[in-house]
Amino acid sequence: xxxxxVAGLAMGVAGVAADPSSPVTFTKDVLPVLQKNCQSxxxxxxxAPMSFLTYQSTRPWAKAMKAAVTTRxxxxxxADPHYGPYLNDRSLQQNEIDTIAQWADSGALExxxxxxxxxVQWAEGWxxxxxxxxxxxxxxxxxxPKNNVIEWTTVIIPTGFTKDTWVTSVQIxxxxxxxxxxxCTGYVPHQAGVKYGLGVWMDKPRDxxxxxxxxxxxxxxxxxxxxxxLDADAAAILRESxxxxxxxxxxxxxxxxxxxxxxxxxxKLIRAGSDIVxxxxxNPNGTAVTDHVKIxxxxxxxxxxxxxxxxxxxxxxxPKQFAIPPNDPNWESPHAEATFQQDAELVYMMPHMHVxxxxxxxxxxYPDGRKQVVLNVxxxxxNWQIGYNAAIRVPKGTKLRVDAHFDNSPNNKFxxxxxxxxxxxxxxxxxxxxxFFGVVVNGDAEESKLISTPVRAGRGGG
Length: 462
Description:
The chain is mainly β. The protein is 10% helix and 29% strand. It has 3 domains: 26-115, no CATH class; 127-304, Sandwich (Jelly Rolls); 305-462, Jelly Rolls. It has 5 helices and 23 strands. The strands form 4 sheets. Strands 1, 3, 8, 9, 11, 12, 16, 19 and 22 form a 9-stranded mixed beta sheet that branches. A 6-stranded antiparallel beta sheet has the order 6-5-2-10-4-7, with no helix packed on it. Strands 14, 15, 17, 18, 20 and 23 form a 6-stranded antiparallel beta sheet that branches. The chain is globular. It starts with 25 loop residues before the first helix and ends in a 10-residue tail after the last strand.
């Protein structure tokens, strides 16, 4: 997958310290901070449960806002500030935190409407203003499936693109985010006989808690003969249409809503006649729904000079190498790595683990032997799949290494069961160590030859 994370990109006017001689008000002091850092999520139709567009909708949350910003729980931003810089850093400055705290403590006054900045013009229902909208899969999400498990489902949809298309931003939008674990997409050549709109999945043997039972050396890579609801021809089509490397080009994840390459003067190429492979994963919540997914694009009028490419790597997922012991608070995962086969610019990094993920560190090892930590997330939070934007030139021969730790102890409040061994798997209560990243290269670069990975490092995604 990879895209630039835009939910929470800096917008509007930066917040400034309030004048101590005048009262702190919503319109003059607080609203500019909310526009810049909060409204991308805190508005109707987005992931946050309350809207911060107006004084009336914000005022009841004044004390809660103070608590969230003073503890730096909000806006979510988990990168260690000693590294970077990150171009989309949405953490609040201390003066902005002080402004919100003072406003809450002094009565949460509204102020004069003349002091308010112009409202941000948010696209209706979208983070981007689409040029093209494609209807994606329709999936029935059961209220109470067996073991509360809905396996990853793959659906193929035509793009309808009759010519090579350079897309400059992408957004995947489920109708019911509350039950959506993730939706990832890839773009593949059309296969004759493909069955559009058919949801297919691979049933896995699972224990009473819904965890996959290690079988034939892997809990993660399902076998082709396990494909459910498919005849032989459709199963072959599914295998041939699998996302490259088991990964994805673009994803919807909590806290990671859209991708915008325009800030990089770059675009992603989707070939004429391509199909879109959707991999959808739902977490049932006791209410049956039918989810309708849409995907939207903005499109470049001319081919760009800079090409954006989405990539991912993974730690090994063989259970002999990836098995988190019970009650281990700091298990060190096998690392993930890739070697760059061409010069590139590293522009996006997104750690991905599940609920036992603890920390992750990204290091570049340059051909001259120099090492540089380019991202450190010391307190990983699965609830916020944050992508970090950078601008790091990476010469050919550079190795990217990603190290991570997991907390399988009772001290991890998200841990569903600290008393069992945890393997690599697709469900939230299983685990992954799958770094996503994006690079920018020259427009004529060969996408399939950008990186190489060790044979021992299987790939996975989502």
